[in-house]
Amino acid sequence: MIIKLLILLIVLYLIAIYPDTSRKGRSAAYEKKFLAHRGLFNNIDVPENSLIAFRKAVENDFGIELDVQLTTDDRLVVFHDASLKRMTGIDKNLTDCSYEELLNYPLLDTKEQIPLFEDVLKVLKPDTPLVIEIKAEGRYIETTQKTVKMMRGYEGLYNMESFNPMVVRYLRMNEPQIIRGQLSYDYLHDPNAKVSKPVAFALTYLLLNFLTRPDYIAYDVEGSDNLSFQLMSKLFKAECVAWTVKSKKQFQEKKHLYQCFIFDSWLPDNKDLNE
Question: Residues of 123-160 as b/e, b for ≥16 C-beta within 10 angstroms?
């Protein structure tokens, strides 16, 4: 009886975490270029998630990963943190501001502003692989809807991802044509994780994949020993995206587990992806 129960639990676990592997071919272009995390930035004179950072990424033939949020006046802007504090010195949440207000807060005392998502799209080339992260907080479903609407008619390469499974679930149910990714990491050992322990456990071990059936898993490269991620990579042969690779050494150590690589803090060579 105990053995049967154990087998049943294992089967249920595998069903819960199983991703959608039927569209792996659509990610081929993402495997040929490194993806610049928030653009090619140095956070000195080239701030992250700025137009100049995205231009530099395109000039160096990298793909791009960026973050979208929604202002109070329903403008899609590209910015990572919930708070403006780190990048502008202003102690307010971005989602509490209008776009016109954000124009008063330059990034890291440079001339760069928090960009509109529509302006970032104009910087990209059709063959620039783009990963759009829908931020997990705030009006995330409205953010998703507006992002989807803006991408209609866009001729370049793109997919969408989120830490929030409800965003990925929304894409699965309402926009199944869009390649969708589930972001995750070790929530259980993150003191800043704003979720309960049971939810942290489910998110860490990708137990909500049965709701989202993501096309790819974007997992913290530092947490790649996670059992569920290892099964994604080795058993299910899912499309796996590494975030965020900080050095060539780290890339070399982890490249056998992932097909796509989001990087910052170093300058990789796309040729290394084909070795």
Answer: bbeeebbbbbbbbbebebeebbbbbbebbeeeeebbbb
Q: pLDDT > 90: what percent of the chain?
A: 96
d(Cα 113, Cα 157) in Å, to the nearest integer?
Answer: 25
Output phi, psi for 199, to 5 deg.
-70, -40
**Mean pLDDT of the chain, nearest integer:** 97
Asked if the model's pLDDT at residue 136 lies above 90, the reply is no
Which of 142, 151, 148, 145 minimizes the C-alpha distance to 71?
Answer: 142
Average pLDDT for 180-185: 98
Q: What SS3 string covers 157-201?
A: CEEEEECCHHHHHHHHHHCCCCCEEEEECCHHHCCCCCCCHHHHH
What DSSP string describes 27-84? GGGGGSS-EEETSS--SSSS-TTSHHHHHHHHHTT-EEEEEEEE-TT--EEE---SBS
Q: Retrieve residue 168's tokens.
A: 């990925």
The CATH code belonging to domain 32-268 is 3.20.20.190
Which residues sit opposite 263 in a β-bridge? 36, 245
How far is residue 95's CA from residue 137's CA, in Å, rounded to a whole number?
A: 9
User: For the chain, which residues make up each domain, given as ranges?
Assistant: 32-268
Q: Among 23-27, 50-54, 129-133, 249-253, name the one with the lowest average pLDDT.
A: 23-27
